Amino acid sequence: MATSTRQEILQQLKELAGPGGYLDERIDIEPYENDFRRLYKGSTPLVLRPDSTERVSRIMKFCFETGTPVVPVGGNTGYCGGATPDESGEQVVLSLARLNKIRGLDPLNYTLTADAGCTLAQVQEAAEKVQRLFPLSMGSEGSCQIGGNLSTNAGGTAVLRYGNTRDLVLGIEAVLPDGSVIENLKGLRKDNTGYDWKNLFIGAEGTLGVVTAAVLKLYPMPRSYGTALVALRDLDASVELLSLLREQSGDSVTTFELIPRLALELTTRHIDGVTDPLGKVYDWYVLLELSCATEESQTQALLELLLGEGFEREIVLDAALASSGAQREAMWRMRESIPEAQSHEGPSIKHDVSVQVRKMPAFVSEATSLVKTLVPGCRVVSYGHLGDGNVHFNLSPAEGDRDPVFLEQAGRVNHAVHELIDQYGGSISAEHGIGRLKREELAVYKSASEIGLMRKIKAALDPSGIMNPGKVI
Ligand code: MLT
Ligand code: ZN
Is 135 close to ligand 1, i.e. is its CB under 6 Å away? Predict the structure, then answer.
């Protein structure tokens, strides 16, 4: 932004955003200058909050003409700093929060069209009112927004059954960096007419344009759930149990989440109302869920049968089945509060990595030995979406240790874990994206040809580099 015209540019942007369409007081701007994990503290002179795609378009056109860098933000719940402005004070923030209408809902077409600023919970609830399921689900669903979910290709706890966000989108509307609007909100399941351009914007973390709306896929609402916390013989047993369940349940496993003993202990210690539903102590657990079109009693019977088979095969040691909605919610609460519970134990060194599902036990064992050598005394909490081959391999300091030296080792530990994941043929970012946090690592672990193609796409869509500069690539 040229210094001489800076005030004029900001003034013009405020006018384009319309009445109530911007924040320029320090106290209001401050939350947008920090990312959710407080890894970054940026600076911005202005947060724009337009209430229509037309206004987003006019704002982008003006930013394009004046070379003003723009950082789009949804619910600001991301883990990689992808929606935080840098420290320069030159970047304006573009919040989609006021684009928050459900534009259309068609139970027969099994689609819902939402503005980008609708929260995930708002979309889930709208679908539920017409007995449909929008299956994207995660701990932050009350505040994360659909535009952010698309932009980060969010994963969550039902990927095993329904796929990532990318798999749940039939079409989008987006504003390109030059202000032009591109749209295909037809809601078609088949449209084989050339490049599937929507997928450029899904997972691009706002570096190619601004997603303003999407047509989302809905599913029949399951009639019943079978939920259980299961204690495993060992880590290897997890993959065997998943396979058994998939084979014998007509592939109705929706969730298969790995939980180590320490994670369960931390949630019972720090989160009100969380208890251990099993009497004894085990090393490894999974929270698993079947979702079915059958009656509750049939689903429960199926789950009991399958877990019985697990006992016989000596892969399951113990299990608590949720026999009411309240018990199911309590199990989910335990799982979803693991990150919060871990944060009470001091800072975490985090990894969000994936490998092929069958390699997961070997990876977790080897990575655990590796980090224990690098950071003696650290506590490993490796939990998460085992059914998707995605684990949050997170380290906490030794109990009671508040020495800042722990966190200073993050870079070294991240690199060692990422080297190992690379040897396993895995990915350094399974579901949280790249943002600012993993930009350098991406350049190391993605092939030169892939990075080259990504650069060409970026240059073609955003030739002046105003879209979320410094993120991803
Ligand atoms: C989760 O699965 O709980 C989230 O992705 C958060 C995390 O990585 O800690
Ligand atoms: Zn996760």
Answer: no
Which domains are seen in the chain, by residue range?
A: 3-95 (3.30.43.10), 102-220 (3.30.465.10), 224-340 (3.30.70.2190), 345-433 (3.30.70.2740)
Q: Output the residue whose Cα is nearest ligand 1's atom 8.
A: 392
CA of 44 to the centre of ligand 1 (A): 28
Say what the pTM is: 0.96
Distance 325 CA to ligand 1 centre (A): 23
- What is the C-alpha to C-alpha distance for residues 100 and 104, in angstroms, rounded to an integer? 12
The pLDDT tens digits for 301-355 are 999 999 999 999 999 999 999 999 999 999 999 999 999 999 999 999 999 999 9
Residues paired with 172 in a beta bridge: 214
